[in-house]
Amino acid sequence: KQTSLPKTNTEIAPAPSNSPPINAQLSDSPMMQLLIDDTEKQSSLIIEKLNDLKKAPDDVTIFEKLAKAAHAIKGSARMVNLDSVVQMANAYEKCFTAAQQDESALNNAQIEQLHDGIELLKKVVNLKGEEGAKWLKDNCKEIESLISSIQTIKASSINQSSNKPSQPVTTDIA
What does the alpha-carbon distance between residue 106 and residue 100 come to, in Å, rounded to a whole number? Predict the structure, then answer.
């Protein structure tokens, strides 16, 4: 007899405004170092694959690798409760998954936006202590803007695929 797991909500809730964005105790912890190392590795892969998309925009297999890399960053950020990074990585993952499922190409401007956002994500991961908390507080609009632009790219890829003409059905009669 198989049992099914209950469905979970995949939406990421915004961080409570009273919660500290960076845990000063974790700044120098091995878990934080794991996040930094993993983000560096996965963001390099994301940048490489985004560049591949410029050369082969219709290659939807690239999106699977992009989504997995974003998912890895999201998981590492969750382990240290770095909500802003979880939210950014989640937006990337959803964008890449939607593009893959909808078999949509991204244009060069969208790819550049996604590339620039990775630089912001890496910056946030490397913030430390009180100085990092202040930077996050002062720049939360920039992070929100990035998430919004990624969601816009995701929505445009879904709309693009729904506007594709359906392939005519052909039959070979011998």
Answer: 11
